[in-house]
Amino acid sequence: MNQRPNLTLILPLLVIVLIVVGGIVFINTQKNNVTATPSLSADNDTSVAATQSNGSSSSDNHAVQLLTDKEIKARLPNLSDYPQNPKRIVVLEYSFLGDALALGLTPVGIADDNKPDSIIPEFTQQLSDYTSVGSRYQPSLEAIADLQPDLIIADDERHTVIADELNHITPSVVLKSRGESYAENIQTAQLVGHIVHQDKKMARIIDSHLKKMADLQSQLAATPLANHSVQFAIISDKGMWLHGPSSYAGSLLDYLNIKSPIPEQTDEAYIATSLEQLIAANPDWLLIGRYNERTIYDEWKSSPLFNQLTAVKNDQVIEVDPNYWALNRSMQSAEYMAAKLLEIAQKSKTKGSSASLNESNE
To answer: 58 and 38 in contact (C-beta within 8 Å)?
Structure first.
């Protein structure tokens, strides 16, 4: 005679089995999450592989994450549309100028805001001659067309609205520049290398650059800057703009393991700032890039609040060249900026005042 199974014995066994199975699934999921390659949000939401040419671990939060070959091709699927060996390139942002010059390519046209002095010496030394095509904000399509370019490299924030018109002139590509971070600037350099069919050469250039930056990063770790917050800001007659952690200068400081006084400001690259807001941020060191001879910052000096700033109390307000720190975002600028920070830190050990540390606008 068949007996019915005792449910009081079976149910606990089933519960135990479910717990064991669930635990195995959870452990495997956690393993997958730990070993999965981290990604970095980029300008078109394509994930970025956690690889760095200088051999840094992918678990390093400050490592530059490079695009894989697959991701580069996904962003620029129509490589055959662009000339194999472009001779007449027009660039509509300084960052693209840096990439082209690093590859030994000399653009015939540059959107330089009609201010050739705004181009850093590292670039002008390689520029025998070029034609200004106007401002980066509103380049002259007529001037561009007159140059008969075979390739135009434009900024996605400023020039997407005229992308069709640029393509009527010649094959054009729109890449991220304005508001980019240091890591995104390196990724864009990869894309520029791909567009001009020089991926391997650009990879070697980036590898050499990251090794230099790793060395400077290591040297800075032994200086006072490593234990204090540093803020870069642009000042003009119209106001002050802090460059937040997501900006080029801010993210470069982060890459160099230098603290930000406004770490929560991660979305905005450029933050319009009042004296009260600056005091709230209160950086240990304040680096300012001056756009005008007379600025809002000079007006603030007459306020009683001004002397409450830690950087002011400790004579750690230093003027730096905005052409490097804001305009000419590039590997060349990054190396200069890191070397300048090291110079500032080393001088601060032997000199109690920042008066002799003010940097002229080269």
So the answer is: yes
Report yes or no: 139 and 119 within 8 Å, Cβ to Cβ: no
**Helices 331-350/94-102 angle, 10° precision:** 100
Instruction: Give residue 110's Cα distance to chain centre.
Output: 21
Q: Are strands 270-273 and 240-243 parallel, antiparallel or unpaired?
A: antiparallel
User: pLDDT at position 47, please?
Assistant: 31
Residue 245 tokens, joined = 């952690």
Shared-domain flag, residues 159 and 93: yes
Q: Tally the C-alpha atoms within 13 A of residue 299's C-alpha that lie toward its C-beta.
A: 12
Residue 168: give the domain boundaries.
69-197
Least Cα distance to 218 among 257, 260, 253 occurs for 257
Split into its structural domains, the chain has a count of 2
Give first-to-last CA distance, the chain, whole Å.
101
Length of the chain, in residues: 362
Check if the beta carbon of residue 262 is closer than 8 Å to that of residue 244: yes
Specify whether 246 is located in the same domain as 148: no
**Is pTM, for the whole model, over 0.85?**
no
Give the separation between CA 248 and CA 334, rounded to whole angstroms.
Answer: 9
Tokens of 244: 């937040």
Is 190 found in the same domain as 257?
no
Q: Read off the pLDDT of residues 275-325 as tens digits, 9 standing for 90 and up.
A: 999 999 999 999 999 999 999 999 999 999 999 999 999 999 999 999 999
The answer to whether 272 and 265 have CB atoms below 8 angstroms apart is no
Tell me the per-residue pLDDT of 53-74, one tens digit each, with 9 for 90 and over.
433 333 355 689 999 999 999 9
Instruction: Report the amino acid identity of residue 339.
Output: A
124 CB-near residues (< 8 Å, 6+ apart): 116
Q: Which helix (H) or strand (E) holds 212?
A: helix 199-220
Read off the pLDDT of residues 228-267 as tens digits, 9 standing for 90 and up.
Answer: 999 999 999 999 999 999 999 999 999 999 999 998 777 7
Q: Are strands 151-155 and 131-132 parallel, antiparallel or unpaired?
A: unpaired
Q: What is the mean pLDDT of the chain?
A: 83
Strand (E) or helix (H) holding 349: helix 331-350
Q: Are strands 131-132 and 109-110 parallel, antiparallel or unpaired?
A: parallel
Same structural domain, 243 and 280:
yes
Q: What is the DSSP letter of 326?
A: I
Q: pLDDT band for position 350 (50/70/90)? A: low
